[in-house]
Design brief:
Keywords: Signal. With about 475 residues, the protein is mainly beta. The chain has four domains: about 100 residues, Macroglobulin (MG2) domain (Immunoglobulin-like, Sandwich); about 100 residues, Sandwich (Immunoglobulin-like); about 100 residues, no CATH class; about 120 residues, Immunoglobulin-like (Sandwich). The protein is built from two helices and 33 strands. The strands form seven sheets. Strands 27, 28, 29, 30, 31, 32 and 33 form a seven-stranded antiparallel beta sheet that branches. Strands 17, 18, 21, 22, 23 and 24 form a six-stranded antiparallel beta sheet that branches. Strands 2-8-7-4-5 form a five-stranded mixed beta sheet, with no helix packed on it.
């Protein structure tokens, strides 16, 4: 009897052990899984992520995929659910190359795919660390973004730019559909630098154009660089800008207000209000926003205004506010000093939030996006003390501070419940509410910026610190 019991339990445990060993017993035999990799050679670089892409499939169901690079300590297993069975899977796995690896090193990426029937397929991908990922750099000399071509002076559009690329340039394309320009220049020998210079004739009718410059490099996996330039061809200046920066200054590195947009326009008579923060302040008038050329109005050797990039600055003799009138056609200007009569927002640093208006003291902070700490809630504008502006001790009409921008920004300078408030619209105009609606979005590189809100000029100046 004891012998029979022993044999029974022996048979039971043998059956149990066999069942545990065969963990695929619930799935019938099937064909091997398949794998199609996006590329058999991947380029990477130290500290850079690369992507492993492949299409996995099995006629019954996938169980797992293992990704291995032993030398880089990569051993990743992705296991798939079996209810329901997964028959296809698009693998997309990113891995960052350690910083201590050399750019001349190569490795094998091993992929092991297993299906639910226990079938296994291996695939290897070559990994090279000598990759080049930078797009060709296009540097425009002319025209610059927003360039104004005055047709009454000349209808010739000079196009001048330089392309640079470490792995060599394959081709450069110049295209403008409206002008029927479509030139592709194939470069023999894949030079690392290429200079383009050509003049195009514009129609004599006013129009806006988009000129597109594209460059492709010669790397095995080509990198594409592209640049769009907006151009205004006109018989009259649509705008003038007042610039108080030295020649050669990068006019697109600041976020708002440099150069300063005009205040009033009647025909080609432009009027500016401007604050000179010191004696003998040097200014120019520009026909375009992003650069000193091609139209830069300054003085010649006799003290007359000329349109010349080489012109000397106009001098405002003493510190203070000026009303300036200029006509780029007649080349006449006047600069008259004046005393502002607008409201002075004093002692804003000692503002006080209070539900009872009579007990409230005005403060000026900011609501908006792309500004660290800012939201569209005026309570947050109050709580975030680092966003509060203070009075400029040298000018009662200016409120000043510093903001950290995180990218494209939009803003309203505000007190409690939007009183007072200045909405930042296009061209650096900060209108006091109620006024024009529609906050403008300003692209800005992340960083710390100086902020000046001039309540007399109704202009904001947000400049890189």
């Amino acid at each position: 009897m004891k012998k029979n019991v022993f044999l029974f339990f022996l048979a039971f445990f043998a059956l149990l052990f066999t069942g545990c060993q065969n963990n695929e017993a619930d799935f019938p035999s099937s064909d091997d899984p398949t794998i199609v990799v996006a590329t058999t050679e991947i380029y990477g670089a130290p500290t850079r992520k690369f992507e492993i892409k492949a299409a996995l499939a099995d006629d019954l169901g996938l169980k797992s995929v293992q990704i291995q690079i032993p030398e880089l300590s990569l051993d990743k297993v992705i296991t798939f659910a079996t209810e329901p069975l997964l028959k296809t899977y698009d693998l997309s796995y990113f891995f960052e190359v350690p910083a201590d690896r050399g750019t001349s090193e190569t490795f094998k990426i091993k992929l092991t795919i297993t299906d639910v029937s226990g079938n296994t397929v291996n695939k290897e991908i070559d990994l090279r660390l000598d990759g080049e990922f930078a797009a060709p750099a296009i540097s425009m000399m002319s025209p610059k973004e927003g360039a104004v071509i005055l047709l009454s002076t000349s209808n010739i559009m000079p196009v001048n730019f330089v392309v640079n690329d470490d792995s060599g340039i394959d081709y450069v394309q110049i295209k403008c559909d409206a002008l029927h320009i479509d030139e592709t220049i194939k470069l023999e020998g894949s030079p690392q630098t290429y200079t383009f210079s050509k003049e195009y004739v514009l129609p004599l009718t006013a129009a806006n154009y988009i000129l597109t410059i594209t460059a492709l490099d010669k790397f095995k996996i080509p990198n594409n660089g592209s640049l769009n330039i907006n151009i205004v061809a006109t018989n009259e200046y649509p705008a003038l800008y007042l610039c108080d920066q030295p020649k050669g200054t990068n006019l697109v590195s600041d976020a708002v207000g440099v150069p300063m947009y005009f205040h009033e326009k009647s025909g080609q008579d432009f009027e500016f209000k401007y604050y000179a923060d010191k004696d003998n302040k040097e200014i120019y008038f520009l026909g375009q926003e992003s650069d000193f050329g091609p139209h830069c109005f300054g003085l010649d050797g006799s003290g007359n205004i000329i349109d010349d990039v080489a012109s000397a600055p106009i001098i405002l003799p003493t510190k203070g506010y000026y009303l300036i009138k200029v006509n780029p056609n007649t080349l006449k200007y006047t600069a008259t000093k004046y005393t502002p009569t607008s409201k002075v927002w004093a002692d804003v640093a000692n503002g006080l939030w209070h539900d009872v208006e009579a007990q409230r003291r005005p403060f000026v902070s900011v609501c908006g996006g792309g500004i660290q700490g800012a939201t569209w809630d005026t309570w947050d504008a109050w709580v975030q003390k680092g966003l509060h502006l203070a009075n400029n001790p040298d000018n009662p009409y200016q409120l000043v501070g510093e903001y950290t921008l995180t990218g494209t920004m939009e803003a309203t300078f505000t007190g409690q419940w939007w009183s007072p408030s200045w909405r930042l619209i296009k061209n650096g105009i900060a209108t006091m509410s109620p006024g024009e609606n529609g906050n403008a979005k300003y692209p800005a590189a992340p960083g710390v910026y100086k902020v000046v809100l001039d309540t007399e000029l109704e202009r904001a100046f947000i400049t890189k610190k």
